[in-house]
Amino acid sequence: MSEAAEKLKPLLAALTADERAEVADYLHELDDGDSDDETLTPEEWEAAWVEEINRRIADGRSGKTVAMPADEFMQRMKEKYG
Fold this sequence. Notes:
The chain is an all-alpha fold. The chain has helices at 3-13, 17-32, 42-62, 70-81. The protein is built from 4 helices and no strands. It is globular.
């Protein structure tokens, strides 16, 4: 897995279920070609994600968004899904 993808994991894990569903829908549209955007090359796709992850990191550092600690997230998932 690329470094960019690895960086996404904790950020995606901190999203709400609804937000993760929106991301999943977005990714599904990209894979199906249903999106109005042009098809991206793997390099363009990775660059877009790097840009997105950098934006999210900046949002977290500025206080615009707040990440959930991993242990709290795992506890919530265990409570919800067992």
